[in-house]
Specification:
The chain is built from 10 helices and 10 strands. The chain is an alpha/beta fold and 342 residues long. It has 2 domains: 2-120 and 303-320, ATPase, nucleotide binding domain (Nucleotidyltransferase, domain 5), CATH 3.30.420.40; 132-298, ATPase, nucleotide binding domain (Nucleotidyltransferase, domain 5). The strands form 2 sheets. Strands 3-2-1-4-5 form a 5-stranded mixed beta sheet, sandwiched between helices. Helix 4 packs across helix 5 (181-189). The longest helix has 38 residues, at 227-264. The radius of gyration is 20 Å and the shape is globular. The structure holds 5'-O-[(R)-(carboxyoxy)(hydroxy)phosphoryl]adenosine and zinc ion (ZN). Residues 14, 138-140, 165, 168-169, 180-183, 186, 273-275, 277-278, 305-306 line the site of 5'-O-[(R)-(carboxyoxy)(hydroxy)phosphoryl]adenosine.
């Protein structure tokens, strides 16, 4: 089936309504509608996200099919995110995908959103030799995993509190930079001095991460200045603060990756998820790859953030490696853990 697979992917786990068509492992189209309705609230409002998904899902799917030049009747499967994510948001994508697939008489395949991120770095290339490392850094997750066979993996480390993207978003809120904060901090940091202020780097046992102390230290630093000084500093040194905070996050991620490469002896490493769009992380990860002699795979930014190409592609990979025992009656699983797929 995988050789003739024409898969429609649907992603609606958070605040992006996305659809894509993947045919025989090639991405023919990838449409993302990023909901703007949350910006003024400084974070995703679940009820508004579900409503926006419901408004956008049909036009987004229609555009994805049109751009791919694929008729609905040509599709061989529909792949959809079943979790983790916001329950109401997942339900919109799942409800649409199940009904659409039912109408077309094709299977609907439920995909773990995090598995989608892992597969985003495989788009356009073959599966690497096992084992390989994968650092998943998004708004909801920060995990380091070793993929040992097929897409089966062992989690080496996870965040004990905030996810890396969450830390970017919370610090951006402290700095009045709007939501999502990662891209704004990235842009400002590009002109800033990463050595301006030594924000703390947490180093836990093993490969676990912690970002909430860093976020709190930015808060204490700003509060400790008093109002006048703070205003003046934010006017003059905002990009330096952004660069210093960003460097602390990147240092923690690169440090764990460096140790894991040494201890596992892998030849291939994936860095995926929304935060892997960060220009400093990309640069430092590339340099780490060269230093350690490993192949560093970081998807283009459009496949780092939430998208449906990675969901359709994950289904394609599973079908290609003969894993047909996919949930064919998927339901929303908001707390679906990464380790549930075989
Ligand atoms: O993967 P994603 O789109 O959604 C989740 O699955 O969570 O990741 C979104 C996260 C947000 O926290 C956003 O601030 C962060 O990725 N992000 C970035 C950048 N672009 C997106 N963080 C740092 N630098 C960026 N350029
Ligand atoms: Zn994601």
């Amino acid at each position: 089936m995988a050789n003739n697979a024409r898969i429609l992917g649907i992603e609606s786990s958070c605040d992006d309504t996305a659809a894509a068509v993947v045919a025989n492992g090639k991405v023919l189209s990838s449409e993302i509608f990023s909901q703007q309705v949350h910006t003024r609230f400084g974070g995703v409002v679940p009820e508004l996200a579900s409503r926006a998904h419901q408004q956008r899902i049909v036009p987004v799917v229609r555009t994805a099919l049109q751009k791919a030049g694929v008729a609905p009747s040509d599709l061989t499967a529909v792949a959809v995110t079943r979790g983790p994510g916001l329950a109401g948001s997942l339900l919109v994508g799942l409800g649409f995908a199940r009904a659409y697939a039912f109408g077309l008489g094709v299977p609907v395949v439920g995909i773990n959103h995090l598995e989608g991120h892992i597969c985003s770095a495989l788009i356009g290339r073959d599966l690497p030799e096992h084992p390989w490392l994968c650092l998943i850094v998004s708004g909801g997750h920060t995990q380091l995993a070793l993929v040992e066979e097929g897409l089966a993996l062992r989690i080496l480390g996870t965040t004990r509190d905030d996810a890396a993207g969450e830390a970017f978003d919370k610090v951006a809120r402290l700095l009045d930079l709007g939501y999502p904060g990662g891209p704004a901090i990235d842009r400002l940091a590009a002109q800033g001095d990463p050595a301006f202020y030594p924000f703390p780097r947490a180093r836990l046992d093993g490969y676990d991460f912690s970002f909430s102390g860093l976020k709190t230290s930015v808060l204490y630093y700003l509060n400790g200045l008093g109002e006048k000084k703070r205003e003046a500093l934010l006017q003059r040194r905002l990009s330096d603060i952004c660069a210093s905070f960003q460097e602390a996050v990147v240092d923690m991620l690169i440090d764990a990756l460096h140790r894991a490469i040494g201890e596992t002896g892998v030849r291939d490493v994936h860095v995926v998820g929304g935060v892997s769009a960060n220009s400093r992380l990309r640069q430092r990860a590339e340099t780490l790859g060269e230093t350690c002699g490993v192949r560093m795979h970081i998807p283009p930014p459009a496949y780092c953030i939430d998208n449906a190409a990675m969901i359709a592609f994950a289904a394609y990979i599973r079908l290609s490696i003969g894993q047909t025992d996919l949930p064919d009656n998927p339901v929303a699983e908001p707390n679906l853990p990464l380790a549930t797929f075989p």
